[in-house]
Amino acid sequence: MSIYDLHVKTINGDEKSMDTYRGKVLVIVNTASKCGFTPQYKALQELYERYQPEGLEILGFPCNQFMSQEPGTEEAIKSFCELNYGVSFPMFAKVDVNGPKAHPLFTHLTNEAPGLLGSKAVKWNFTKFLVDRDGKAVERFSPNTDPKEMEETIQKLLQQ
Protein backbone atom coordinates (compact mmCIF):
# COMPACT_ATOMS: atom_id res chain seq x y z
CA MET A 1 0.00 0.00 0.00
CA SER A 2 1.12 3.54 -0.80
CA ILE A 3 0.35 6.76 1.05
CA TYR A 4 -1.43 7.80 -2.14
CA ASP A 5 -4.03 5.02 -1.67
CA LEU A 6 -5.31 6.64 1.53
CA HIS A 7 -8.11 9.14 2.07
CA VAL A 8 -8.40 11.81 4.72
CA LYS A 9 -11.14 14.20 5.84
CA THR A 10 -10.44 17.92 5.65
CA ILE A 11 -11.17 20.19 8.59
CA ASN A 12 -14.27 21.27 6.64
CA GLY A 13 -15.50 17.66 6.46
CA ASP A 14 -14.68 16.91 2.81
CA GLU A 15 -13.08 13.60 1.76
CA LYS A 16 -9.69 14.07 0.12
CA SER A 17 -7.42 11.54 -1.54
CA MET A 18 -3.78 11.67 -0.51
CA ASP A 19 -3.11 11.17 -4.22
CA THR A 20 -3.77 14.92 -4.47
CA TYR A 21 -0.27 15.36 -3.00
CA ARG A 22 1.55 13.02 -5.38
CA GLY A 23 4.92 14.50 -6.37
CA LYS A 24 5.02 16.89 -3.39
CA VAL A 25 7.30 16.86 -0.36
CA LEU A 26 5.07 16.55 2.70
CA VAL A 27 5.39 17.41 6.36
CA ILE A 28 2.58 15.57 8.15
CA VAL A 29 2.14 16.64 11.75
CA ASN A 30 -0.30 15.81 14.55
CA THR A 31 -1.27 19.07 16.18
CA ALA A 32 -2.98 20.41 19.30
CA SER A 33 -4.14 23.89 20.28
CA LYS A 34 -3.48 23.63 24.02
CA CYS A 35 0.01 22.13 24.02
CA GLY A 36 3.38 23.55 24.99
CA PHE A 37 4.45 22.89 21.38
CA THR A 38 1.50 24.80 19.87
CA PRO A 39 3.74 27.80 18.97
CA GLN A 40 5.35 25.49 16.37
CA TYR A 41 2.41 26.43 14.15
CA LYS A 42 4.28 29.70 13.48
CA ALA A 43 7.46 27.99 12.25
CA LEU A 44 5.45 25.47 10.22
CA GLN A 45 3.58 28.33 8.55
CA GLU A 46 6.89 30.07 7.76
CA LEU A 47 8.25 26.89 6.13
CA TYR A 48 5.03 26.55 4.17
CA GLU A 49 5.17 30.11 2.88
CA ARG A 50 8.83 29.76 1.93
CA TYR A 51 8.75 26.36 0.21
CA GLN A 52 5.18 25.75 -0.95
CA PRO A 53 5.97 27.28 -4.37
CA GLU A 54 8.75 24.65 -4.72
CA GLY A 55 6.43 21.74 -3.91
CA LEU A 56 6.18 21.55 -0.10
CA GLU A 57 2.86 20.81 1.55
CA ILE A 58 2.35 20.83 5.30
CA LEU A 59 -0.63 18.80 6.47
CA GLY A 60 -1.92 19.34 10.00
CA PHE A 61 -3.93 16.65 11.78
CA PRO A 62 -5.41 17.72 15.12
CA CYS A 63 -5.27 15.00 17.75
CA ASN A 64 -6.82 14.88 21.21
CA GLN A 65 -5.04 11.72 22.41
CA PHE A 66 -2.38 13.44 24.51
CA MET A 67 -3.81 14.88 27.75
CA SER A 68 -6.89 16.14 25.86
CA GLN A 69 -4.92 19.07 24.44
CA GLU A 70 -7.17 19.38 21.37
CA PRO A 71 -10.69 19.38 22.85
CA GLY A 72 -12.38 21.76 20.40
CA THR A 73 -14.49 21.17 17.33
CA GLU A 74 -12.98 21.29 13.86
CA GLU A 75 -14.49 24.75 13.41
CA ALA A 76 -12.90 25.99 16.66
CA ILE A 77 -9.52 24.46 15.71
CA LYS A 78 -9.58 26.06 12.26
CA SER A 79 -10.45 29.45 13.72
CA PHE A 80 -7.75 29.17 16.42
CA CYS A 81 -5.04 28.27 13.87
CA GLU A 82 -5.99 31.05 11.46
CA LEU A 83 -6.44 33.79 14.08
CA ASN A 84 -3.44 32.99 16.30
CA TYR A 85 -0.87 31.70 13.81
CA GLY A 86 -2.10 32.69 10.35
CA VAL A 87 -2.16 29.02 9.32
CA SER A 88 -2.90 28.67 5.63
CA PHE A 89 -1.57 25.15 5.11
CA PRO A 90 -4.18 22.36 4.89
CA MET A 91 -5.70 21.25 8.17
CA PHE A 92 -7.72 18.07 8.57
CA ALA A 93 -10.36 16.58 10.84
CA LYS A 94 -9.27 15.31 14.25
CA VAL A 95 -7.70 11.86 14.19
CA ASP A 96 -6.26 9.29 16.54
CA VAL A 97 -2.60 8.60 15.82
CA ASN A 98 -2.19 5.60 18.13
CA GLY A 99 -4.22 2.59 19.17
CA PRO A 100 -7.00 0.59 17.56
CA LYS A 101 -8.72 3.68 16.14
CA ALA A 102 -5.53 5.21 14.70
CA HIS A 103 -6.10 6.75 11.29
CA PRO A 104 -4.61 4.53 8.53
CA LEU A 105 -2.38 7.45 7.47
CA PHE A 106 -0.62 7.46 10.84
CA THR A 107 -0.44 3.67 10.95
CA HIS A 108 1.30 3.85 7.56
CA LEU A 109 3.65 6.65 8.62
CA THR A 110 4.67 5.03 11.91
CA ASN A 111 5.45 1.77 10.10
CA GLU A 112 7.57 3.53 7.46
CA ALA A 113 9.34 5.92 9.84
CA PRO A 114 9.57 4.39 13.31
CA GLY A 115 10.74 6.53 16.19
CA LEU A 116 13.62 6.17 18.60
CA LEU A 117 14.64 2.55 19.15
CA GLY A 118 12.14 1.42 16.52
CA SER A 119 9.10 2.62 18.44
CA LYS A 120 5.96 2.78 16.31
CA ALA A 121 3.81 4.87 18.68
CA VAL A 122 3.56 8.62 18.27
CA LYS A 123 4.81 9.95 21.60
CA TRP A 124 3.17 13.39 21.71
CA ASN A 125 1.64 16.29 19.79
CA PHE A 126 3.70 17.87 17.02
CA THR A 127 5.46 14.71 15.92
CA LYS A 128 6.46 15.52 12.35
CA PHE A 129 6.78 13.03 9.47
CA LEU A 130 8.71 14.05 6.36
CA VAL A 131 7.54 12.35 3.16
CA ASP A 132 9.48 12.53 -0.12
CA ARG A 133 8.07 13.21 -3.60
CA ASP A 134 7.57 9.46 -4.12
CA GLY A 135 5.33 9.15 -1.08
CA LYS A 136 7.89 7.46 1.17
CA ALA A 137 8.10 8.58 4.81
CA VAL A 138 11.83 9.25 5.08
CA GLU A 139 12.16 10.73 8.55
CA ARG A 140 10.29 11.30 11.80
CA PHE A 141 11.01 14.36 13.90
CA SER A 142 10.16 14.51 17.58
CA PRO A 143 7.86 17.11 19.10
CA ASN A 144 10.98 18.75 20.56
CA THR A 145 12.36 19.40 17.08
CA ASP A 146 11.75 22.98 16.02
CA PRO A 147 10.34 22.90 12.48
CA LYS A 148 13.18 25.22 11.40
CA GLU A 149 15.60 22.38 12.17
CA MET A 150 13.96 20.36 9.36
CA GLU A 151 14.64 23.04 6.75
CA GLU A 152 17.89 21.62 5.37
CA THR A 153 16.36 18.16 4.92
CA ILE A 154 13.27 19.70 3.28
CA GLN A 155 15.48 21.65 0.86
CA LYS A 156 17.34 18.46 -0.15
CA LEU A 157 14.08 16.61 -0.81
CA LEU A 158 12.69 19.50 -2.84
CA GLN A 159 15.78 19.42 -5.06
CA GLN A 160 15.37 15.70 -5.86
Description:
This protein is an alpha+beta fold and about 160 residues long. The protein has one domain (about 5-160): Glutaredoxin (3-Layer(aba) Sandwich). The chain is about 25% helix and about 20% strand. Strand 5 (about 130) and strand 6 (about 135-140) form a beta hairpin. The relative contact order is 0.21. Belongs to the glutathione peroxidase family. GO terms for molecular function: peroxidase activity. InterPro entries: Glutathione_peroxidase (IPR000889), GPX_AS (IPR029759), GPX_CS (IPR029760), Thioredoxin-like_sf (IPR036249), Thioredoxin_domain (IPR013766). One of its GO terms (biological process) is cellular response to oxidative stress.
Distance between the termini: 23 Å
**H/I helix tally:** 4
Order of helices and strands: EEEHEHHEEH
Q: Structural class, please?
A: alpha+beta
Tell me the overall shape.
Answer: globular
Detail the poorly predicted runs.
none
Number of domains: 1
The share of residues in helices is 25-40%
Rg, Å, rounded: 14 Å
CATH superfamily: Glutaredoxin
Spatial strand sequence of the major β-sheet: 4-3-5-6
The level-1 CATH class: Alpha Beta
Strand content: 15-25%
Task: Tell me the number of strands.
Answer: 6
Keywords: Oxidoreductase, Peroxidase
Organism: Metabacillus indicus (Bacillus indicus)
Protein name: Glutathione peroxidase
GO molecular function, one term: peroxidase activity
Short description:
Residues 1-159 form the Thioredoxin domain. With 160 residues, the chain is α+β, with helices and mostly antiparallel strands.
